[in-house]
């Protein structure tokens, strides 16, 4: 069905290791992303039973050549020289309709040479969570891996308790991570490292090949994409939860949705992940952590770069520092959009600081606040003003802020600015309690809530009755305070 190619498998052994999927008991298709399949070059989509066989790994897909990828990584700051795909298999790459090479990978398809103590499987919950959140991110225009298929395995996997198993099919620009470079660098095999770097330049950053120092140019491009990515995450309250270097994509996509979650009541120090005890990956730490990860990437590239000694380190450090202005510029642009200000406005930073403080002090839900502000900008009606003020515990303070905002915003007179404001402020995000509700229903065999939530979060600007119902913030009893990797 998919016209596979196998470029990554031509890289030397520890980077790609031939591995077969382990069949599951009785695969059944939960979801298949037909529009994405067409984008990837699929002509005809077979029946669900065949899809279930293929996307569980039970039957080899025509032309697939499954392999597990080696990578290393800093996990919560500690270097682990060998991680790798412990429960994932790269089936191959396809050239999509835009001429872009993209990976297709099974996740939860059984043990691999990199599995260590793990069972190579995925529980159903994290599969559904990744499907929903990654497709929402794509609908928001945020660079991300995509969901192609989800299949239940008919087997139980044991975590804290026995849970239904599932296999997820992920599509990525590539699965090359900062940790992949760390893996090659740790082997102290410069030829291996160079082969990887040249592959990445050819595949993701072809313009770097013509630079005076292609590897320095590669670093510069990766820094720029990460800076934009993290600014976009933060503009909608996304908290990745496990920004280890092995979860940091060289192509600049959001990858490895584990305990990720969206901010509800605004708090810059917010952490959801149960394993993030030190709050290393708190919301507001994300830019600094991305920069730290990029410094680890830079270290791996030093042996390939032209300069030597102190001059080399200085040059690389200077590029890592550029993360900050690039991040700031993207954030300024996004903040102007979110507030309905002209793009060149110099008030965005101050107004956003003011509103963030209102949201924090007034215990306001981040998504609901920006949605209400967008509705108010459209109508300037008392009703929408009241709707916004109802979100805070400090309406007098917010009223004062609104006065300053009103004088600066142009969204209610400028259609283009309003469109930008709307597209920066979704009506709905996949809220933690809704995702949990959907998982609970699926564990009882009912996938209808999953399909409903998926339909709504992939049209995040639609103002339907169903969207409004599923968009509502959690009540106190519905709140999900902790999220789990679920691996
Ligand atoms: P993650 O938490 O998904 O980023 O994974 C971190 C590392 O643990 C990667 O090397 C994974 O392949 C590995 N891993 C996670 N879950 C499993 C599992 N069930 N079986 C084998 N390896 C796993
Ligand atoms: Mg990972």
From TrEMBL:
Cofactor(s) required for function per UniProt: Mg(2+); Mn(2+)
Coiled coil: none
Keywords, in A-Z order: ATP-binding, Magnesium, Manganese, Metal-binding, Nucleotide-binding, Nucleotidyltransferase, Transferase
EC numbers on record: 2.7.7.-, 2.7.7.108
Catalytic activity: L-seryl-[protein] + UTP = O-(5'-uridylyl)-L-seryl-[protein] + diphosphate; L-threonyl-[protein] + ATP = 3-O-(5'-adenylyl)-L-threonyl-[protein] + diphosphate; L-tyrosyl-[protein] + UTP = O-(5'-uridylyl)-L-tyrosyl-[protein] + diphosphate; L-seryl-[protein] + ATP = 3-O-(5'-adenylyl)-L-seryl-[protein] + diphosphate
UniProt: ATP binding residues: 84, 86-87, 107, 119-120, 170, 177, 256
Residues the record lists as binding Mg(2+): 247, 256
Top-rank EC class of the record's enzyme: transferase
Annotated InterPro entries: SelO
Active site: 246
Function according to Swiss-Prot or TrEMBL: Nucleotidyltransferase involved in the post-translational modification of proteins. It can catalyze the addition of adenosine monophosphate (AMP) or uridine monophosphate (UMP) to a protein, resulting in modifications known as AMPylation and UMPylation.
Family: Belongs to the SELO family.
UniProt xrefs under HAMAP family: SelO
Name recorded for this polypeptide: Protein nucleotidyltransferase YdiU
Organism for this UniProt entry: Halomonas alkaliantarctica
